[in-house]
Amino acid sequence: MITIDVDMNKCQHYGQCVFEAPEVFQLNADDKLEYQAEAPDEMLGDLEAAADVCPMQAITLTRE
Amino acid sequence: MDADARLVLIVGASMAGLRTAENLRRAGYAGPITFLGAEPHAPYNRPPLSKELLQTEGQGHDDVAFPIRSALEENVEWVLGRAAQSLDVERQVVVDETGAEHPYRALVIATGLRPKPLPIDDHGLAGIHVLRTLDDAVALREALRPGANVVILGSGFIGCEIAATAAKAGAASVSVVSQSRIPLERALGPLLGAEVRRRHEAQGVRFFCENGLFGLVGDPGVERVILTSGVMLECDVLVVAIGSDANTEWLEGSGLDASDGVLVNGGMQAVRADGQVLENVYAVGDVARYPNPLFDEVARRVEHWNLPTETGKRAGQVLAAHIRGDDCATIVAAPFAPLPSFWSDQYDMHLLAFGLTYLADRSEVVAGDLTDECVVEYFRGDELVGVCGIGMRGAVQSYRSRFAAPVAAH
């Protein structure tokens, strides 16, 4: 299992992560980021891609 | 093949170099990788240098460093604090500034950019800054104390972001001196550029456009600057932010086409001045010059933040295939058409853009209100080449698919 943490003090809701891992990250109707806190291991590639493209580098992934 | 025979040398311990290494591992290359970096630091993220890090006392490398993923914990050597000095593609060796030789089987050039220097004589005065590296940012942060008179030469993104940070940090005055008519005009066009200016002026920042530096006064540090228009400004801190040059001097004599960055094909493979492609030499990130079929066939160096990651991904895939001994022609022939993206935070204004807005000859507000939140479209003739929003991120993001179809390759 992968734990996903977004530092909401850093996040500016640019939504770049949404395009790399839409199963986990979404922009809601108010253009604010919402995300799932956990995802299966097979999503690691997509989640790393999402963390990479975050302009604020606000996404931390932890493998358990 | 022994381990050394597969040695990948990455020159530039940068975001682009790191992303290339990660993607090499992802594509199955487990062999040795050496990073040769001019800066003393492991790869870090530069955008906060003009924003959070510049205004937060105590922030340093830990606050901006990219995490080193587990795949790069093994079989990776970091040689930091040493700039590359020359490249010999026949002998497959890079020589660093200490004279040490670094042999390679495959080379990745990720040496990035450096700021253009002050265009007039600095007379050795203290108080003159640029902003590219972490060390630059720490030095500038110490200078931007409350009450300072700050003059910024250049009205691009770095100049405007520093102006916003300096204004927030309690500078006595913040002045932006620029050759252009309107700040950010090249990147954002006249509509958004004028709006950016208005928002800065509301925070007390002064603009001196269609202007330049004529001279500096002070001893031992700069105290005043004289503009070409004759205006004299109090100045304790002068920041030079008039764009960047590619770090390619070390490639002189290598035979590569490094006239404005390193020319590469769609597989990020270097092209020599005689047109021959070197299948074991790659360039990624800000230093790479390549055509993007989303727009046209002109090879360009584009400095937007997402492209080091995109070019690193591409180079990692192609290079892994090359090392395996696969025929790379098919991968290289597939269009490399990354959608450029940039953003900028100034005060409470959040700009987000896709495409190459600076190719446009016309821009138009299509949603919202320029003085609040809005979406601006950019056209080259009838062709949409970019979009930029103030806020309205969902609407701006929805444009991504509009750029998705590359023009047919010829």
TrEMBL record, chain A:
UniProt GO molecular function: 3 iron, 4 sulfur cluster binding; metal ion binding
Does the UniProt entry include the keyword Magnesium? no
Has UniProt tagged this entry with the keyword Iron-sulfur? yes
Q: Which UniProt keywords apply?
A: 3Fe-4S, Electron transport, Iron, Iron-sulfur, Metal-binding, Transport
InterPro entries registered for this protein in UniProt = Fe-S_cluster_ET
- Give the highest taxon in the source lineage: Bacteria
Q: Per its record, how is this protein called by name?
A: Ferredoxin
Automatic annotation (TrEMBL), chain B:
Q: May I have one GO cellular component term?
A: cytoplasm
What terms describe the molecular function in GO for this protein? oxidoreductase activity, acting on NAD(P)H
Look up keyword Metal-binding and say if it applies.
Answer: no
Swiss-Prot/TrEMBL keywords: FAD, Flavoprotein, Oxidoreductase
What does the record give as cofactor? Answer: FAD
Q: Does the keyword Kinase apply?
A: no
Q: Which Pfam families match?
A: Pyr_redox_2, Reductase_C
Q: Where is the Reductase C-terminal domain?
A: 342-403
- Describe the location of the FAD/NAD(P)-binding domain by residue ranges: 8-299
The record's InterPro entries line, in alphabetical order, gives:
FAD-oxidoreductase/Apoptosis (IPR050446), FAD/NAD-bd_sf (IPR036188), FAD/NAD-binding_dom (IPR023753), FAD/NAD-linked_Rdtase_dimer_sf (IPR016156), Reductase_C (IPR028202)
What name is this protein filed under?
Answer: NAD/ferredoxin-dependent reductase-like protein
